[in-house]
Amino acid sequence: MSSVSQQQHADRPPPKSSTESKVEMQQLVLPRDGDVESHQLHSGQLLKWIDIAACLAAERHCDKPCVTVSMDGVYFEHIPRVGNVVILKAQVTRAFDSSMEILVDVRCEERGNAEQPKVVCKAYLTFIARLKDKMKVKLPFIIAASEDRTEYFLANERRSNR
């Protein structure tokens, strides 16, 4: 490794496995979270939960406070209803120099029927670590686990389309 390359990586934390950032959240859809007439979950509440899950995964990856930079288009395949349990699984798919992509997979299940969770949506978010001095934070690179390699390689393509 050249001295320039060694110097560029000297201030970067060591790489982490993609599985180290995994976060799973479960939220019970309460009446306050849904529409009074249709009893469907408000999409804004779901987007808030997605953002929280993604932020937890990002902070777990870099051990620093993180902020949302962007969220790709989110398309709902199923709308959870009051009384459903929403399951959010988030993890960092790729870390670039100072930004990272997080995938959040969202499903829901009826209480008492955990065998048949329904796909709600997938969301890709971009986060950066933020310190008080506003300096860019170099992130640990990802070592993609074998089951995560496809997402890892596609992250570059998604990034260029943003």
Write the layout of secondary structure elements.
Layout: H1 3-10, E1 16-17, E2 23-28, H2 43-62, E3 66-71, E4 84-95, E5 99-110, E6 118-129, E7 142-143, H3 149-161
Parallel strand pairs: 1-7
Antiparallel strand pairs: 2-4, 3-6, 4-5, 5-6
Residue runs with pLDDT of under 50 for 5 or more positions = 1-7
Shape: elongated
Fraction of residues in helix: 25-40%
Q: Could you state the oligomeric state of the chains shown?
A: single chain
**DSSP strand count:** 7
Mean pLDDT: 89
Keywords summarizing the entry:
alpha+beta, five-stranded antiparallel sheet, two-stranded parallel ribbon, 3 helices, 32% strand
Care to describe what's here?
The protein has 162 residues and is of the alpha+beta class. 25% of the residues lie in helices and 32% in strands. The chain has three helices and seven strands, in the order αββαβββββα. A hairpin with a 3-residue loop joins strand 4 and strand 5.
Brief synopsis:
This protein is α+β, with helices and mostly antiparallel strands and 162 residues long. The protein is 25% helix and 32% strand.
